[in-house]
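Need tokens for this chain, all 320 residues.
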Amino acid sequence: MNLYNLLYSREIIFLRIKIFLVLIILSQLSACTLIPGQHMRAFSTQSSVEMPTTEDNEAILKKLNIQKINAQLIIDMEKDINNFSLGPDNVANHYFDYRIGSNTIKGTPDKETYDQYRVGPRDILNITVWGHPELTIPAGEFRSAEAAGNVVGEDGTFFYPFAGVIRAAGRTVEEIREELTQKLSKYIEKVQLDVRVAGYRSQRVYVGEVEQPGIHLVKDIPLTVLEAINSAGGVKPGADLRNITLTRDDKTYSINLLSLYEGGDIKQNVLLKQGDVLNVPDNQFNKVFVIGETMTGRGFGVRPRSIMMNKARMTLISAG
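Here are the structure tokens for all 320 residues:
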């Protein structure tokens, strides 16, 4: 190889190196257009892909409108309470609308007036007939009132001496007392007796995804959502207080407990009843996905990432 050919080969190599370096620089400058899903045409008014949304109470996929963020948009959003995390129509509160197979009813069940506790099967009654210890099963020093009481059978009845079979299921202690008094008055003059529930075992509520998940008994004191969660040790860190689920009679409702804590919305504190299932979901689905040229903690970059929202509150500065 002569000197001319050697110099020509070196020039070709240097030229190729320069072209390669230029291509690398151009790829970094246009990273947002090279990475799929991160490109948006200038002055675009709609998203390039279809996104899940709700129209006429039906979940559909459609291209969403794109709004430029300016001062007027922020002012308009601040005027609408639904843009706050406590707003019932805030998009962040539509957690269950986008879950596959979800049929959750947004909002609480119809409010029910509190009624006196009604006895059910497996409850234990303690009956005392004053002046007639032979009719009152003595508790004794080593027997509790619950252990010595009258157990309501699975058929909702119990037996009492001289009174026979008494129906207890679905009745209050006052109604049971009235029937016992009427039947015992045939044998005892001026009957004085007392009926109370010694053991509550018939009505149960199930609470899950809390610090102490398990079964909670419904007693004569009303059991609400807030009381059930507090008695279960409270919620776990990272719980989604805005989308607590209450399953009742084959229907599932979404309860916003954050609205109760911070907004004073007492209708969210639903009165629980037999068979209710209360569940506190985690916050894993409440994320913001950040792509493009943003701060990544190690300078500017294009590495996509997800950020967990706290109580559905996050600003653009926090996300960036």
